Amino acid sequence: MVSLLIATRNAHKVGEIRAILGEGVRCLTLDDFPGAPEVVEDAETFAGNAARKAEALARWLAERPNVKPGTETGEWYVLADDSGLEVDALQGAPGVHSARFAALDTGHPGNSSAADNNAKLLRLLAEVPPVERTARFRCVLALTPVPRFPAGTAAAPGRAGEMVLRTELFEGVCEGRIGLAPRGQGGFGYDPLFIPAGQEATFAELGEAIKNRMSHRSRALALLGAKLRD
Predict the structure, then answer these.
(1) pLDDT mean values, one per 10 residues, the chain (230 residues)
(2) Would you call 32 a catalytic residue per the annotation?
(3) Which of 31, 32, 42, 82 is catalytic?
(4) Going from the N-terminus, what domains does the chain have, and what CATH number goes with each?
(5) At 204, which helix (H) or strand (E)?
């Protein structure tokens, strides 16, 4: 069985991934590895952040003595993603800063609340007419195999860091527009404001089942799922 360490503690995101990948993939999260290092996501692109996180955690996982990738547990991978909202009227912002969009104004470390991020977005778009509020959600998944070591040998500290990792990237995009006010109780993040193309309801109003068929993450995961089933 394929095992994935999903590089997040976001329960909403994990739920989406598990629902879309379905059975046949063992999904663990950073909550299952409390000693996992924090990886600074300061790349300028979604792909750069996702790959950086996946590779750092794959090397860390390879050096854990109680985890044996590629033996009795089957193939082990780290799955990391970076995703966010790109608004055309804001020249692609918030982009890679989607999770801490409001915090950029205060210099406060860490992510902002969804309410604060949404409030800032609406404030910046206050004078933008509906026809010009086009936007998209973009997701890039990075899949990195955990380095293998010969049977019966242990990975010395730093040994995994010497290995060249074969990271694969999978990208999904969902086009849409930004509403005039938050609507709906489902989803998370910018979902109450994002209306996907061809719909009149926001992601937060559509419900998880419908969202998971059209979201940026579901499109990236469809490509990933095909890879894992090969």
Answers:
(1) 87 83 85 89 94 94 66 75 97 96 88 95 97 98 83 50 81 98 93 97 93 91 84
(2) no
(3) 82
(4) 2-229 (3.90.950.10)
(5) helix 203-206
